[in-house]
Amino acid sequence: MIDLSSSTDPRIGVASHVLSEVDAVATRHGIRLMVVGATARDILSETIVGAPPARATADVDVAVAVPSWQAFEALTADLTRVGRSRHRFLVAGAQVDVVPFGDVETGDRLVDWGDGTRMSARGLNEAFAHARPVRLPGGVEVLVPTVAGLAVLKLVAWSDRRLETKRDAVDLQTILGWYATGTFLDELYETELSLLSAYDFDPAPASAHRLGRHMAELLGSTTTDVVALVDDESLGKLAADMPNSVADQALALRALREGLRHSGFG
């Protein structure tokens, strides 16, 4: 259990207030929420480095495993819809996107909204299977992806909407930074000396490789589909979408891909 019940960060507080209302609705329908998107990033950042990252958003995104479109419509009927969108709602003054996955996915892991809009659901089921419970201010408890799970979702989201926004690349860069600091860095030096040696004891690419390996462990047999999102051309575009940094982002992303490929699943 991640315990952020005593957090005084305003972003966490607002998210908790919103999520308590959405969770109450989901609980009535026997559904467990998984927080995704920037709110999941903020929760994990608070846990790992003690504060959310600089990039803020007022939106809250959640994912729900549902057995049918009828179950999704029954769940969301209790929420106030924004415009004509089937997945966007207004809760406690905040915009909330509710993304279904599971039995509503098409054979190629897409969610087809029936209006010409389709979004990738790759990684959601796998992230949900490994998600951790988190307790937020006010006592609401929801699920949040692991760091590797969030990295998978951000990579998929970047591939899905990179022509619309660079924010997923920014968040993925933040996640790479987490894996090269704190307890993740300690674990790298304590248990991964051979991996460090392979990267001339540069912790940034070694940490990225380790993250890729953990992403593959989460994805299992679906790893190949995610590896395909970072071919040479896409990897270059992803690095270009990340803000300038002292770290070599292209090198870190190549290492991430190597971790995905050489995990036994890629």
Description:
- Helices cover 50% and strands 15% of the residues.
- The chain is an alpha+beta fold and 266 residues long.
- The strands form 3 sheets. Strands 2-3-6-5-4 form a 5-stranded mixed beta sheet.
- Helix 5 runs antiparallel to helix 6, helix 5 (147-161) packs across helix 9 and helix 9 (203-219) runs parallel beside helix 12 (249-261).
- The protein is globular and about 55 Å long.
For this entry, give a set of tags.
three-stranded mixed β-sheet; five-stranded mixed β-sheet; Beta Polymerase, domain 2; 266 residues; 2 domains; 10 strands; globular; alpha+beta; 12 helices
Number of strands: 10
Alpha carbon gyration radius: 18 Å
Q: Based on helices, strands and strand pairing, what is the structural class?
A: alpha+beta
**General form:** globular
The gist of it:
This protein has 266 residues and is α+β, with helices and mostly antiparallel strands.
